[in-house]
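FIELD: query
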Amino acid sequence: MIKKGFTLIELLIGIAIMATAFSMVSAQFRDFSRNQAVVSVARELKSDLRLAQEQSLAGKKPSGIGCDSPKVLDHYLFSTNSTTYRIDAVCSSPVTMVRIKEVTLPDGILISAGAVSFKVLGQGTDLEAGTESVFTVTQEATGNSTTVSISAAGEIY
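FIELD: result
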């Protein structure tokens, strides 16, 4: 009589192959998800830069205390430090800053420090012609990084 089935060695080899495949896939997924965290922060950064740019192009003064009449909207300031970035509306006579948005980055993700001003009504940025401002988003644990650049004309890429 012939018995059908698998031997113990065949089962162990099959389990070992599946475990090896699972460990390789999980390592690749972990790397992918870490990289996506950096890409996600960079996308949000670009979106918020565009928000500051759009508000300045429209000459939109924030409502409420700080930029009320007779003050004049001068520019929108986008500034960063290593773990946060923020958008402020800057009004003149006397100079006041009104916080529009502040974002704290996820743990382990850093951004290079810097600032750029978007002038009102399509006057561009405070950067000199032919230069650009570059913000680098980096994940500490892996060293993965990406950059977001702003040209003197206000192009964000």
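FIELD: remark
Strands lie at 72-80, 84-92, 96-104, 109-111, 114-119, 132-139, 145-151.
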